[in-house]
Write a structure and sequence with these properties.
The chain is of the alpha+beta class and 425 residues long. 28% of the residues lie in helices and 25% in strands. The protein has two domains: 186 residues, RNA polymerase II/Efflux pump adaptor protein, barrel-sandwich hybrid domain (OB fold (Dihydrolipoamide Acetyltransferase, E2P)); 210 residues, Chloramphenicol Acetyltransferase (2-Layer Sandwich).
Length: 425
């Protein structure tokens, strides 16, 4: 019997996805649990497994198509059923054209004037309940050229409509002047001139755009900046980095997270969110630290859950694991949710100071600049020190400027003295 597989609800508020890759083709045998399609959502790209074992009958969408939760996007033959033999025979026949299989579609209605007597006669013979066979390539081309596919006589096996049939129909339409076909602007790459190119935004890029706009236009941002002499931390890390090199890559970030958690504990309004509807400040008693990560698909913020319970080395391992999996597109949706405070390290790509945008609905974010050697005055002498720039953006509706300065002062105290940091963390 035929099983209609609907795009499943994969959680985390996701309602739709874009097909980035089919992992099967029509006629393939699949096992239950085997991945059949790769779908890009607004958060991650994920593979969808088959819920049944059987043969792939119809791929109901093409690469690049958007599918909604609950929409049927593939049909699977899951067993022998003589009652369905005739229907299945029609559905499983395939003719490849530019690697595309054939699909059946129920004819809806046609208001387009047919281009010739031959096509008009063929159209008259088709009822609204008849199935029209065409390759996905031909269907897409017909949409692009505004050609009514239901009015075309197919020249392929069993009357299937091919790409060349669409081109011939389009030429006939233009010749008799009945229909002026226009490419669908919403399906093509638009080029204004040779110096301008328009590229569609990916789901993740659109989500990033929406979230940044929501944060920037909802939260009145204020940013405090300062520099920290981390020369002692530099030597401390250098010593233990070599000792732990076979166990973990010890960066500065675990120490900064530890210092941040101490500051969040003392200034809880930075580990909070504003409930505007109820006029309440929501103070969070957990420390889930989001780490902004640059990936090929855009900015992602995997979250280290309960970071206050982890040691320096455990934090280093968690950072490496999450960032690597985010860059390799292996991150889980649950690992991108539930953050209470975020850190972004633009210094890793050469930035010094910046104005980071808060990860809404959080109340603050810490930006890390590039560590450099600079001359500083210590005990009335000029010495070379390792300097870390810090930028703290916070929600000015709930956090005053004085609190921002105090937060950074505590961060400076802890990061400039690693022994004090370990004692207080």
């Amino acid at each position: 019997m035929k099983f209609e597989f609907e795009f499943p609800d994969i959680g985390e508020g996701i309602h739709e996805g874009i097909i980035t890759k089919w992992l099967v083709k029509e006629g393939d045998e699949v096992s239950e649990g085997e991945s059949i399609v790769e779908v890009e959502t607004d958060k991650v790209t994920t593979e969808i497994p088959s819920p049944r074992s059987g043969k792939i009958l119809n791929l109901m969408a093409n690469k690049g198509d958007t599918i909604n939760v609950g929409s049927v996007f593939v049909t699977i033959q899951t067993g022998d059923s003589s009652a369905n033999d005739e229907e299945m025979e029609k559905e499983t026949e395939s003719v490849e054209e530019e690697t595309a299989g054939v699909v059946g579609e129920v004819v809806s209605s046609s208001m387009v004037i047919p281009p010739s007597d031959e096509i008009r006669k063929e159209s008259d013979e088709k009822s609204t309940g008849e199935k029209v066979l065409a390759t996905p390539v031909a269907r897409k081309l017909a949409k692009d050229l505004n050609v009514e596919i239901n009015n075309i006589k197919g020249t392929g096996p069993n009357g299937r409509i091919m790409k060349d049939d669409i081109y011939r129909a389009h030429e006939s339409i233009e010749k008799i002047g009945n229909v002026v076909a226009q490419p669908r602007k919403d399906t093509k790459l638009i080029v204004d001139d040779e110096n301008v190119e328009r590229i569609r935004l990916t789901k993740i890029r659109k989500t990033i755009s929406q979230k940044m706009s929501q944060s920037r236009f909802t939260i009145p941002h204020t940013t405090a900046m300062d520099e920290v002499d981390i020369s002692k931390l530099y030597e401390f890390r250098k010593k233990y980095k070599d000792i732990l090199m076979d166990e973990v890559n010890l960066t500065y970030l675990p120490f900064i997270i530890k210092a941040t958690i101490v500051a969040l504990n003392k200034f809880p309004e930075f580990n909070a969110s504003l409930d505007e509807e109820n006029d309440e400040l929501v103070l969070k008693k957990f420390y889930n630290i989001g780490i902004a990560t640059d990936t090929q698909r855009g900015l992602m913020v995997p979250v280290i859950k309960n970071a206050d319970r982890l040691s320096i080395t455990e934090l280093a391992k968690a950072i490496e694991d999450l960032s690597n999996r985010a860059k390799e597109n292996r991150i889980e949706l649950s690992e991108l949710k539930g953050g209470s405070f975020s850190i972004t390290n633009y210094g890793s790509i050469g930035g010094y100071f910046g104005i980071p945008i808060i990860n809404y609905p959080e109340s603050a974010i810490l930006g890390l600049g590039r560590i450099t050697k600079k001359p500083v005055v210590k005990d009335d002498e000029i010495v070379i020190a390792h300097i870390l720039p810090l930028s703290l953006s916070y929600d000015h509706r709930i956090i005053d400027g004085a609190s921002g300065a105090r937060f950074l002062n505590l961060m400076k105290e802890l990061l400039s003295d690693p022994e004090m940091l370990l004692l207080k963390s």
